[in-house]
Amino acid sequence: MSGLISKPRTQFGFFFLRKLVNLRSDQQDIAARGKFTADKILLFSILLSFIAIMICVFLVIVFYQKLPPVLPLFNQLSWGEARLGTKIQLGIPVSIAAIVLLINPFLSLLFYKELPLVSRIISITTLTVAVLSLIFIIRTIRIVV
């Protein structure tokens, strides 16, 4: 029965701390990058995230002059002026998606060798944020224009 006992859960948390503190050797980094680019889930999710963010940027640039000075951006708030935001605030979801796209591939690369599932979850999260940002931009522009 004692042979079936697994490692304590606290070691999982220490793994992340060790990864951030200890740097891998160059050979391990090269080997991890080779597998990282061969993983289709990671590659396609990051590529599709980039495409979704570029579409968001394109839509904002194309329709910026046609937009009114205030937009209904904060739809969870009660009716009135609290729901309205300026045209420049339309860039907030695009900026958040871009920041997530810049940070998450590095985290995925960092954890890929030992925890490929975590890397895939991180990259799919990046795709989710980018697609939700794209949906938000499209719906907001459709309402106004």
Label this structure with key terms.
single chain, mainly alpha, two-stranded antiparallel ribbon
If you had to describe this structure to a student in words, what would you say it looks like?
This protein has 145 residues and is mainly α. The chain has one domain (26-144). It is 68% helix and 4% strand. The protein contains five helices and two strands, in the order αααββαα. The chain has a two-stranded antiparallel sheet with strand order 1-2. Helix 3 (40-63) runs antiparallel to helix 4, helix 3 runs parallel beside helix 5 (116-144) and helix 4 packs antiparallel against helix 5 (116-144). The longest helix is centred in the C-terminal third of the chain and has 29 residues, at 116-144.
Helix-strand layout with pairing:
Layout (H helix, E strand, L loop, with lengths): L9 H12 L4 H13 L1 H24 L6 E3 L11 E3 L4 H21 L4 H29 L1
Antiparallel strand pairs: 1-2
Structure described in brief:
With 145 residues, this protein is mainly alpha-helical.
Please tally the helical runs, counting DSSP H or I stretches of 4 or more residues: 5
User: Biggest sheet, open or closed, and with what strands and sense?
Assistant: 2 strands, antiparallel
Task: Going across the biggest sheet, name each strand in turn.
Answer: 1-2
Average pLDDT rating: 80
Unreliable residue stretches: 23-27
User: How many individual domains?
Assistant: 1
State the helical fraction. 55-70%
Instruction: Report the β-strand fraction as a percent range.
Output: under 5%
N-to-C terminal Cα separation, in Å?
Answer: 67 Å
Reading the helices and strands in chain order gives: HHHEEHH
Counting DSSP E segments of at least 2 residues, the number of strands comes to: 2
